[in-house]
UniProtKB/TrEMBL annotation:
Record lineage: Eukaryota, Metazoa, Chordata, Craniata, Vertebrata
Major subcellular location class: nucleus
Physiological role: Ribosome biogenesis factor. Involved in nucleolar processing of pre-18S ribosomal RNA. Required for optimal pre-ribosomal RNA transcription by RNA polymerase I. Part of the small subunit (SSU) processome, first precursor of the small eukaryotic ribosomal subunit. During the assembly of the SSU processome in the nucleolus, many ribosome biogenesis factors, an RNA chaperone and ribosomal proteins associate with the nascent pre-rRNA and work in concert to generate RNA folding, modifications, rearrangements and cleavage as well as targeted degradation of pre-ribosomal RNA by the RNA exosome.
Pfam families named among the record's database cross-references: UTP15_C, WD40
Listed GO biological process terms: positive regulation of transcription by RNA polymerase I; rRNA processing
Record PROSITE patterns: WD_REPEATS_1, WD_REPEATS_2, WD_REPEATS_REGION
Protein name, UniProt field: U3 small nucleolar RNA-associated protein 15 homolog
Subcellular location: Nucleus, Nucleolus
Superkingdom in the source lineage: Eukaryota
Residues of the U3 small nucleolar RNA-associated protein 15 C-terminal domain: 343-489
Amino acid sequence: MATYKPVVVQAAPKLGEKITQDTLYWRGYKTPVQIKEFGAVNKIHFSPVSPYNYAVTASSRIHIYGRYSQEPIKTFSRFRDAAYCATYRDDGNLLVAGSEEGSIRLFDLSGRAPLRQFDGHTKAVHVVGFLSDKYRIFSGGDDYSSNLWDIPSATEIVSYSEHTDYVRCGCASKVNADVFITGSYDHTVKLFDARMKSSVMTIDHGQPVESVLLFPSGGLLVSAGGRYVKVWDVLKGGQLLVSLKNHHKTVTCLCLNSSGQRLLSGSLDRHVKIYSTTSYKVVHSFNYATSILSLALSPEDETIVVGMTNGVLNVKHRKPEERKEKSQKRQPAYRTYVKGRTYMPKQEDFCVSKPVKRVLRKYDKLLKSFQSSKALDAVLEPPIRLYTPEVTVAVMQELHRRGTLRSALAGRDEKQINLLLTFVARRVIEPRFTPVLVTVADMITDIYQPVVGQSAIVDRQFLKLQEAIGKEIDYQEELLEVLGMMDTLFATFTQKKATYLDEKKSNGLTETTETNTND
């Protein structure tokens, strides 16, 4: 008895994933470390100075983590209610945070008790930060106000009440020590100058603003709210440069990498998108388990930290670069391992081949035992039918070659007929499957024609199949018309008769002769 040959599945060529330098760079992170916090993580901020610890604000605590530590190395818990937006000063010595009760607390990293407490907001303070002169603090709260505070005297310098809804985000300019920006749920982003009594610029984002970011140069502003990330030119009076809509849900956080050439955005759709700041196209993306509330990138791009709504902190560290010295030391072991692989047997050598055990798939085993109907059922299961339809079509083609396709299709109930017709109607328009599935559709119609009208579900699938084939025929007719037009155009370009000039000079006269090339 001859050995059974498995079904040959004709694999269509697939386009490979485009590997770019960004893909290689952002894939160069280790498996993430998961840290559980006490509540949703609303802010992550890295210290600007080495060793680049980061502050995590969640629930009523602020945890300070080392770069590689999985346990907090310091905790600030002097809050009666939720804490918000813990932010480092540029020298890494001080930390400021807002709170649900409306007060702002200033901490020294070497102690635990607050150095200063600023009271003036009547509702929760969700955004705080230092101006670049290091001696003033800006804040925004749910009382619609944006305030400026003096650190040495712990007094309020000025209060702006221009927003008409909650102020939930803000940032300070690194170029000008008097400029800071706030974003509000009233859809506006306002630019304030501490030397002026009112805002100097108002930008309408069009959605409740969740995050704002100012480029290091101070010329470009990024705002995030709703599904949009928008880039504005501040030097041109707030002119919109580009509007990005790559997320499916609200964008909650923004950050830049150390070089300022990549912009990162996190969203409630569980994705972090990475954009090029030259073309503003997505160059890479990360997928996470739950919705993202906060995002931070270490100053050297060595660590990505993401805070999520379920209180989980996701930390990714960059893989260390492989050293060439180690690979050189391992070369002798590798040569030993591959020794003899390239040996060619001589004429007098006796070769002993090791038998290879072939593992057959489920449908091959059923075909080997001539169970045609069960083999067809096996390839109509969802994993094969949906993700590898070429296997299903290959088995149908093999059954047709054996002459048992009609018997495999016959004797099926309403559910199985519906499944078959759904598959055929969806895949019959694909050119690689059309020759086989047209035969299958013809057999199904011939076998189950007597029962048409007895089941509304089966009748609906027959109508869908008819509609799919009708559309495909219309497309083919249109393509043939276009092909005919192109043939006509090409025919006009061909020269049926070619002439050339044969100039002969005799006695000072030029003789012109027209010659037919067909002669």
